[in-house]
């Protein structure tokens, strides 16, 4: 049927049938209710929709009352990326922690099952996970600890186990970010990553977890572990000239690997596509042309309107057909049917009480996992006394857009344990990611006047002055050569503090700004201790190459609440199950 023979009602439902918008607040807005009644495929929850599990369960019930077939999806990976527990941090350590667990991939099955129960109890239909990216680039600004590991086999085993766990609780899963986001050095939220590597390498590295999840072997042969797959806004020249999310060759490759369910795009309002297409509406049309079935959109209702209008216009001009859109809608309806049947078989109840109980169970499991994974490596860690007032410096220089913030759960856990702790920078708000109006001025030692302490060289020089226990005014350049620090005019050089110094890192890659600042602090405070929230694998290379063998490092494997609490226990001198010979703590408490 051509566009002119398709009635407006049919076109409206067909267009709505490929859209997955977000929305503001904890109540169903009028525009969303109207769209749901007119065939909207689903919605994506953000943290602003899910302040607590009770509110989430109530909101889901309201949406499903309006449209029983509406797909409610959420990014709830655990660890650094959480929507249901965005305020206080995830109860479940993320993928890197699961991949590092000493007991094998059965822990990922248990974690997936526990998370699935919570999602089912809050009325959520589809988890936008697991992450099946293989982190082959340590300086990856967006994946990092969100991945299960650095080898295709580890990622495949843990990712498949996690997916099976979630599905056993009656929830659908969406593997991401096809064909792989692990080799990138650019965050697709803000720019277009390019992975210019041969297709043969992609097949033996990045594609392996997807291929094994879609066509598992053994007793699960013929039964895909995934309900949907999300494509990445990453350009692979070996596949074609456009990012995978709008590249027909990427879609064909995914179908060749055996995926017959919905293909979901990453959010179309991300920077990678905006730079390419110029508008979300054009990105929506190009994604459908490339073979996508569901289009993720952000919070602003204008994104829904723009995408809806652009798709409708594409149908009216013959660029797209109603039949093409209905093919996508049919795939989504098949997913809905499968999830409803799965949930009925699993028998989980939905509601506030069930969700509260499921969250408590998840928290208990998460604490056990974190205790087994978070550990100390490197130099001698002197436990912090209960009366200590540590200085805490966040050296991370890049905003974690996937997590929605530069997560401060480690700082929160430290200040809860040591109320006198001083945190630098203060209550950071970057790009509107957190409440507040920029970095808060904090107390400094410059003539008693407040100084804005950001992660710039001026602020670092002030900190070096304050924290120099030994009144040392030297730091190191990138080559490791000692040189005099250039302190701001008016700085009180003799002001010093003798409290413990804890620094938080994520990507102290040699040559990076984060690394340079770590070297400067290490030069004047060789007693500092690090809480490292990034990849656990490169810890020896990143910290052991510092002069003197480097500091004691609490390897947190992420910034979730469970990770942060376990990190605090290590700072207190409580030994984790992995510490063993890597832990060189003393029985003396540090003031």
Automatic annotation (TrEMBL):
Segments of this protein annotated with the region Disordered: 570-591
Keywords, comma-separated and alphabetical: Glycosidase, Hydrolase
Keyword Hydrolase applies: yes
A GO term, aspect molecular function: hydrolase activity
Domain Glycoside hydrolase family 3 N-terminal: 38-333
Top-rank taxon: Bacteria
Pfam families noted in UniProt: Glyco_hydro_3 (PF00933)
Keyword Hydrolase: yes
The family this protein is said to belong to: Belongs to the glycosyl hydrolase 3 family.
Name of the featured protein: Glycoside hydrolase family 3 N-terminal domain-containing protein
Species per Swiss-Prot/TrEMBL record: Promicromonospora umidemergens
């Amino acid at each position: 049927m051509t566009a002119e023979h398709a009635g407006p009602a049919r076109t409206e439902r067909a267009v709505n049938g490929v859209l997955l918008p977000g929305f503001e607040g904890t109540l169903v807005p009028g525009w969303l209710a109207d769209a749901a009644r007119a065939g909207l495929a689903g919605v994506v929850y953000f943290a602003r929709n899910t302040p607590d599990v009770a509110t989430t369960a109530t909101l889901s019930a309201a949406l499903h009352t309006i449209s029983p077939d509406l797909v409610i999806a959420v990014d709830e990976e655990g660890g650094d990326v959480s929507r249901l527990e965005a305020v206080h941090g995830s109860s479940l350590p993320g993928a890197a922690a699961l991949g590092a667990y000493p007991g094998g991939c059965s822990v990922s099955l248990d974690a997936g099952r526990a998370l699935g129960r919570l999602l089912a109890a809050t009325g959520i239909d589809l988890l936008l996970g697991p992450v099946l990216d293989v982190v082959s680039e340590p300086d990856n600004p967006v994946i990092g600890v969100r991945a299960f590991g650095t080898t295709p086999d580890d990622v495949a085993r843990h990712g498949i186990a996690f997916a099976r766990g979630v599905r056993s609780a009656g929830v659908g899963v969406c593997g991401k970010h096809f064909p792989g986001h692990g080799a990138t050095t650019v965050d697709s939220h803000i720019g277009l990553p390019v992975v210019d590597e041969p297709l043969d390498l992609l097949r033996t590295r990045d594609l392996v977890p997807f291929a094994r999840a879609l066509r598992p072997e053994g007793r699960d042969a013929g039964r895909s572990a995934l309900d949907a797959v999300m494509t990445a806004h990453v350009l692979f020249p070996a596949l074609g000239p456009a990012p995978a999310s709008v590249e027909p060759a990427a879609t064909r490759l995914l179908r060749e690997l055996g995926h017959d369910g919905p293909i979901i795009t990453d959010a179309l309002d991300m920077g990678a596509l905006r730079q390419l297409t110029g508008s979300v509406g054009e990105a929506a049309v190009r994604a459908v042309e490339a073979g996508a079935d569901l289009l993720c959109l952000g919070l602003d209702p204008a994104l829904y309107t723009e995408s809806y209008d652009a798709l409708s216009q594409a149908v009216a001009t013959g660029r797209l057909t109603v039949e093409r859109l209905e093919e996508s809608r049919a795939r989504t309806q098949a997913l809905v049917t499968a999830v409803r049947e799965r949930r009925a078989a699993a028998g989980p109840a939905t509601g506030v009480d069930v969700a509260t109980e499921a969250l408590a169970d998840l928290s208990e499991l998460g604490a056990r996992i974190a205790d087994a994974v978070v550990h100390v490596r490197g130099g001698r860690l002197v436990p912090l006394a209960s009366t200590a007032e540590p200085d805490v410096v966040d050296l991370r220089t890049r905003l974690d857009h996937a997590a929605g913030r530069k997560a401060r759960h480690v700082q929160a856990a430290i200040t809860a344990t040591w109320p006198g702790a001083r945190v630098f920078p203060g209550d950071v708000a970057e790009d509107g990611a957190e409440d507040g109006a920029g970095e808060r001025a904090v107390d400094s030692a410059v003539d008693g006047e407040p100084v804005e302490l950001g992660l710039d060289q001026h602020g670092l020089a002030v900190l070096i002055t304050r924290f120099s226990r030994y009144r040392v005014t030297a730091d190191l350049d990138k080559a490791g050569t000692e040189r005099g620090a250039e302190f701001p005019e008016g700085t009180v050089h003799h002001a010093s503090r003798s409290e413990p110094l804890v620094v938080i890192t994520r990507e102290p890659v040699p040559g990076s700004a984060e690394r340079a600042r770590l070297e400067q602090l290490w030069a004047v405070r060789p007693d500092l201790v690090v809480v490292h929230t990034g990849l656990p694998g490169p810890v020896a290379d990143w910290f052991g190459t510092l002069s003197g063998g480097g500091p004691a490092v609490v390897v947190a494997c992420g910034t979730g609440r469970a990770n942060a609490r376990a990190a605090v226990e290590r700072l207190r001198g409580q030994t984790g199950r992995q510490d063993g010979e890597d832990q060189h703590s003393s029985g003396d408490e540090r003031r």
